[in-house]
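G.,

No rush on this.
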Amino acid sequence: MGQEESRSEEMDLAQIQELCIIFMKECPSGALHLHEFKRIFGVTSSSAEESLYIETIFRSFDTNQDNALDFLEYVAALHLILRGNLEDRLKWSFKMYDKNGNGKLDRQEVGQIIRIMYKIKLQTSDIGMTQSEICDRIFELVDQNGDGQITLSEFMEGAQKDEWVMNLLKLDVNATGWVIQNCGKLP
């Protein structure tokens, strides 16, 4: 068992080294800036909604708030995006929604993300609901105590109980294509 763990750690170390080489090739300054982050995810400057969505995601990974991702922030972001378990991804999504950082989501915070997602991906789907109706339905299904705010525990439980809610609340970022193109394999 110890040998298996060692191999696993070695493989992870090799992958991290490979990511570091790619990171330094892509970001010789040692920092990944917003415009480079947008390029990685294929966001064009012509789409204001996609741009705002990616900026929100970028800011969530910029833990030291210096407007750039260093290598550790970059690895943490890729790990969450590519390997993060459902619970971690939902916690991250909650953090993204919670703009004021008070640990609760109000209708304005949920509505803002719904507006962005609606313009990016929901508008072309068969959802058949307005942005306001989507927000109302989320609160109806998730706000267990009916206080007009969603706590992290309500968010986690609600998303895991209802697939429709899960698909709306779990923020998805597709970096797999870029990673495959640049690494040849998933980290």
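When you get to it, here's the other one too:
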Amino acid sequence: MLKHYLEITKPRIILGNIVLIIGSFLFSSRFSFNFFLFLSTILGVSLIIASSCVFNNLIDIKIDSKMFRTKNRALVKKLIQPISAYIFGIFIGILGIFILGALVNFLSMFLSIIGFIIYVFIYTFLKRTSIYSTFIGSFSGSIPSLVGYTAVNNSIDLFSVFLFFIFIFWQMSHFYAISIIYIEDYKHANLRLFSIERGVLKTKKHIFYYIMCFTISNFMLTFLGYLSYFFLCLVSILNFYWLYISYLNIKEKNNLKFSRKIFFLSIIVVVFFNFLIAVDSKL
């Protein structure tokens, strides 16, 4: 039973967001790392993200039942009763808010609540009616980078804003690749995604544009003096390769051939980026 409750928290989404928290937290910590604050931030945000995923699962039961990759989820198969999941989601969400408010700071708590609201009450419903749901959802997915930064500084500055938009560009590339890979599933669920409404070719072009924006934004972090040329040289190697693959994807008629590669590269890119900003801040 416990594994079913763990499943509806979507651990892979939580892990992905923890990567963003770690990078921004370590960058802003520089030479004064507070281990207790670090753990409190990760735990608090993870619980709120887990709560948002539980509610997302509850709202999407009918949609998930129509898609091959989600038809065996615990709530779809009634391995967990909706009321139990509802209580579980409320409990871990409140616990996460309390941890951030009591052990981190109110700004980080407030940002996490905003992320929860965007994901559960806007994105989850908007994907049924608008092709721009992914863009709105990316705001929620970028907030953990802000929280990791504000947990240390208790303020929002230009660098944290840059991080926020950088991860929006990254997420759009990442999620648009997913929307191509699983396009048939999304069609069965009657979702209004960009790849369905505007076509795969246009989605591929937008992936290229977003990766280009991501790459240029990385340059800006160095040119504005936040990160070194050491960071820029290393991150550019992977970024330009990612951009090159996205260009090849536009020319490729087989929609899965490079879209899968773009997706897996996006995971490597975000881990590498956050590792570099954490390390670069100590050099």
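The first helix runs from residue 2 to 7. DSSP finds 13 helices and no strands in the chain.

Enjoy the weekend,
O.
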